[in-house]
Amino acid sequence: MSEFRKVTDSFSVAPQIAIEDVAEAARQGFTLLINNRPDGEAPEQPSGAAVAAAARAAGLDYVHIPVRGAATPEQVAAMAEAITGARGAVLAFCRSGTRSINTWSLGQAASGARSRDELIRLGAAAGYDLSGVLAG
């Protein structure tokens, strides 16, 4: 099972999840699954369609916002919109969780929801260094 890393009470990230992790995410109370990994990035990863089907079967909402490298402003906005519209806790994933937390943190910083220092602390507590992403 992939490790779900809590960032806030309503947002967590994970490295690549397996199909069986989707039901576990639902059991843990997540309501939205955000896939930040492009299809075909690695041969062993499940397709976005397979993850979406598993999410639907588990009663989760699903959004695919594939990020290659640094997130674009459009991807940051799409992720912020998805999170804002979520009916509960959100789990976002990519290969390592880094693109997911980076994209989330950029949206948080842009909206003024959290300060740079708070975001860096939250990232560090989840095992991610956001200092380079949130230059300032």
Structural features, described:
The protein has 136 residues and is an alpha/beta fold. It has one domain (5-125): Protein-Tyrosine Phosphatase, Chain A, CATH 3.90.190.10. It has 5 helices and 5 strands; from the N terminus they run ββαβαβαβαα. α1 runs parallel beside α2 and α3 (73-84) crosses α4 (98-111). The longest helix has 14 residues, at 98-111.
With strands numbered from the N-terminus, the spatial order across the biggest sheet is 1-2-5-3-4
**Biggest sheet character:** 5 strands, mixed
Which whole number gives the mean pLDDT? 96
* Large-scale geometry: globular
What is the CATH topology assignment? Answer: Protein-Tyrosine Phosphatase, Chain A
Secondary structure topology:
Blueprint lengths: L4 E4 L2 E4 L4 H9 L2 E6 L12 H11 L2 E4 L8 H12 L4 E5 L4 H14 L4 H10 L11
Parallel strand pairs: 2-5, 3-4, 3-5
Antiparallel strand pairs: 1-2
Helix pairs in contact: 1-2, 3-4
